[in-house]
Write a structure and sequence with these properties.
Oligomer: single chain
Helix content: under 10%
Order of helices and strands: EEEEEEEEEEHEEEEEEEEEEHE
Distance between the termini: 34 Å
Number of helices: 2
Structural class: mainly beta
Number of strands: 21
Amino acid sequence: MIRLFVTAATITFAATACSPAPDNAADTPAATDEVSVTEADTETSSETTSVTEPEESDDIQTVGYPDGWELQPFWSGEYPNAFSVTREGVTVMGHEAITFEEYPPIYCGLPHKATYSPWNAARREADKLEFVAMTYPTTFTIMEDTSVEAFVGDGAEQLALSAGDELIYKSYLAEGFFIAEKDGVQYELNESDLPASTEFQQGPEDQEWVLVTCDDADQTRAWILYDEALKAPGVEVYQYTAFGEASDLP
């Protein structure tokens, strides 16, 4: 299992994608059915709250994603995205598998007042929710010699970087922290520690998915894309009132 801890000391960024993103992802490579799983064992200093990742994430099926996309077993951000069902009879478009515009849809009814957030433990456990994201790692280039604090494994070290070094930006975490890879080793770095001259490659935005139990007699299981859910009438962005806490609507 992969463990992830997200810092909570200072909220400095809104929930963001794993890397700077363009307006669309139309220029990604040709499609393939194989998508790798990002593995990270990360921990930050200061206060933390645990994020539960899906069980057996290696077995999650993805269909049609172009080369380069990876499955990340959590939703990023200081306050992760979340949505609530604000009226009766809401139906959203879901899929049997996480799909890049290929699988036919499953029209999935959602219960009134339900809130879908990684922090809504009661709903997550009752409906066996799983929160994952498809991310597209990009590269960034160090333009001047520097040394930055890097978290790896259970400790921290100073990571020496030289002008011209290229690292992989794997995934955003929270509060400026992100997972970077250099020479096959994954580190947790903070964007603010990098020189201002650092050049970041642009990439498509994350696609966040949640596996839900539909509100029907068969308790159909369906994967719902966060952005698609928000298009349904009666689905609205959930407003957090406390860090690490979420619940169904009263």
